[in-house]
Amino acid sequence: MAEQENEKLWHVIYTKSKWEKKVDSLLMQRGFESWCPVQKKERQWSDRKKIIEEPLFKSYVFVRASKEEYTNVLSTMGVVRFLYFEKKPAIIRDNEIELIRKYLGLSYTNIQVVDMGAIKPQTKVAVNNGLFMGQRGEVVKADKKSVYVRLDSINMMMIVEFKLEEVSVL
Predict the structure, then answer these.
(1) Which residues of 121-150 are buried (b: 16+ CB within 10 A; e: fewer)?
(2) pLDDT tens digit sequence for 95-109
């Protein structure tokens, strides 16, 4: 699918370190639809525990923009560049955004993100139960309870914990 000049698609932008939530806020102030997926994590300080919202993808924010809006996105404070995959701006499909949103909405989720550059795909599987039922993916590693599901468009993967009986080898 060739991107039209004024077609708004989800892109990945790379931000300054620890600027994800600030960039998300600045992009929204400028009228862009943007999203910085966050996950609640418990952190221990010497005197207390605190629940914080931590960005799921370090230094990445998703923004829906057209090609003609690239310059306005790049001129936002904290934005470093658009992420490229195979020499083209990384485009995230709407269904991938929705899957991440749904999974983050589940109370028992604990998602880790791993850079796919260091891990090679091994086995194709289908998910038989739960939120990802019917989805097919490449497993790069599996143990007694974890399956690593790849998101092709940004060359990243989500580590999603499944029971072994919830997946089947294709």
Answers:
(1) eeeebebeeeebeebebbbbebeeeebbbb
(2) 889 888 888 887 666
